[in-house]
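lol so apparently i was supposed to do this last week
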Amino acid sequence: MYPPRFEYYAPTTLDEALSILGRYGDEAKVLAGGQSLIPLLKLRITSPGALVDINRIEGLDRISEGDGFLSIGALARHKACERSELLQGRYRTLGAAAPQISDPIVRNLGTVGGSLVHADPQGDWGSALLAMNAEVLARGPDGERTIPLADFFQGPFMTALKPGELVVSISVPDPGARSSGAYLKLERKVGDFATAAVAVHVALDNGNIGKAGIALTGVGGTNIKATAAEDSLAGAEPTDDAIAEAARLAAEAAEPIADVRGSADYKRNVVRVFTERGLRTAVEAARAA
Ligand SMILES: Cc1cc2nc3c(=O)[nH]c(=O)nc-3n(C[C@H](O)[C@H](O)[C@H](O)COP(=O)(O)OP(=O)(O)OC[C@H]3O[C@@H](n4cnc5c(N)ncnc54)[C@H](O)[C@@H]3O)c2cc1C
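anyway here it is w/ flavin-adenine dinucleotide bound
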């Protein structure tokens, strides 16, 4: 099916994009990689009056580090993240998630900002960035605001973004040198969305876990931050028992439903096993850092 008619704009500056978005309000949609939006247009699930293509805005795809943050431009492609050295080491949770998103064609076009705004509970960036306590930097008619990712996802395909607002970048706080992470994803075949996936991050403090981040993909109405599991590890020695207990709490936080990918019990058990494995991998990598 062809999409219904819409006006097409290709601004070259953020101000220009915001002014067009302001004119159309919730009648306009931002076009980034188009990997989620174009299918929705073709199926006529959404029929915006205008598309604001942000691909010509310079610098919106920049990935950089400084002032205690890793900054990922909203337009950074999954593929660029997969290749970036900056998303390794202490930001390894992100570097591990990137190559597990779909296939190379989708990764060449799809963007981090588009993935977060699409807010698919099976989106991989949501969990990887939640585990790392990321914040979304949004700009709109009333200026700029920062939204912790934990508050950004409000339901399946729903976010805290207001009409007229654009995601400009995503900030990830520097977790410190002695830290690392992992992203474990179970998919039915290469390129599929997750049956279940787990993002973990640990920052060591004198051999103990100073801070842990754990988030779940595909087992609820949004990506889920497993806060009880995270809290159970804060200040703890990374023993087998502590890791097993955190994995149990992560599985408890999951809210899976049965579907073609598996039963609810199966998915919950995948979360438990992946959390345990991910934490072990992350602790080992952080020790070696
Ligand atoms: C076959 C296939 C398989 C896939 N598999 C996976 C997978 O395994 N894991 C996974 O995580 N994802 C998967 N995806 C989704 C993919 O990651 C998309 O890239 C992503 O969901 C959307 O990014 P995009 O840049 O294409 O956004 P678009 O499709 O351009 O936009 C998506 C939504 O976000 C809005 N938007 C985009 N950018 C901004 C911005 N900067 N500010 C405000 N609003 C914005 C748009 O208006 C739209 O509502 C898959 C997609 C396809 C087609």
